[in-house]
Amino acid sequence: MAQDSTLMNLDHQYLVSAFLKAKEAASLLSHVSDGGSANLHAVKIYAGKWNGRIKKAATEAGICSSRHSRRGRSCVAVSFGMGQGNRNTAMNEAACAVLKEAGLDAMMFYMMD
Description:
Blueprint: H1 4-9, H2 12-27, E1 42-45, H3 51-60, E2 65-70, E3 73-78, H4 86-101, E4 106-109
Antiparallel strand pairs: 1-3, 1-4, 2-3
Helix pairs in contact: 2-3, 2-4
């Protein structure tokens, strides 16, 4: 997981590239059945004072993002899914795995009805 000092040293293009790879991994699962309930799953990335860098890179990669706070920790939420059920879950989980491999402190946020 990326610590503040690690994230500080990540190049902007590296972050954009990581988001593009995550987007590609998610798109490979767009065929998954959209059965299941309405899931509002997303990927949360904890970057502390570097949240602005994360948000900017996500936006440049064409991914919707927003800042959030969870249990006193500031983070950026990004969603790679489409649909509302199983497809959304699978796509976001795939993207989360890629972002973790890239060194980001990413985790899944699960919200089901």
